[in-house]
Amino acid sequence: MIIIIDEVLAVMNIEQLVTTRRTIKKFKADPVDEALFMKWLQAASLAPNHKMTEPWDIIFAGPETRGKLKHKTDFGGAPEVMAVTVKHGKTDLETVENTAAVACFIQNFMLQAWDEGVGTFWCSLGASKAAREVLGVEEGSEVVGIIAFGYPEEIPAIKDRISIEDKIKKLP
Ligand SMILES: Cc1cc2nc3c(=O)[nH]c(=O)nc-3n(C[C@H](O)[C@H](O)[C@H](O)COP(=O)(O)O)c2cc1C
């Protein structure tokens, strides 16, 4: 089922933002104001991060780079495509924690974007060796996700989740 954006565009509280966000795979060509997404990125960096490593870096892919990434739908025609990378930690645990912090950063970004009617598409394409090279990712960093964003052309229906009751274990 496709929901038309105007029907969900309203002032949303945090629960509504979390529950109405969808992975968008088809975007309008309309640009997103750079001042807006810079604001979301800055605020996203208030994500929790252990030892204040602030382990995220962002690489915006322009048209030439996007072409070289050879994504099958060119990221659904999103006007913006950015890779978000994580720096390795000094230990394996620190690397895991840094990656968790970057995921928080990305979710912060996605929810702020959604709050202003901008949809996001998290792709794992950046993890491939070829994509790393295209993006010029340095040694000691990994791509956590390529995040395409723009105004949605289509918003997919919710993908139901397993009841959280089935995910909870209570210890004595
Ligand atoms: C780490 C990560 C990698 C993902 N990679 C892809 C991807 O390569 N291609 C894709 O279509 N969706 C990708 N997604 C999006 C998921 O498929 C999507 O979140 C899931 O189907 C649930 O849909 P929803 O986000 O609309 O709730 C990725 C999501 C995460 C968190």
From TrEMBL:
Record domain Nitroreductase: where: 19-68, 69-151
UniProt xrefs under SUPFAM superfamilies: FMN-dependent nitroreductase-like (SSF55469)
GO molecular function annotation: oxidoreductase activity
Short name of any one Pfam family annotated for the protein: Nitroreductase
Stored InterPro entries: NAD(P)H_nitroreductase, Nitroreductase, Nitroreductase-like
UniProt xrefs under PANTHER family: NAD(P)H NITROREDUCTASE YDJA-RELATED
Record's protein name: Nitroreductase
Lineage of the organism: Bacteria, Bacillati, Bacillota, Bacilli, Bacillales
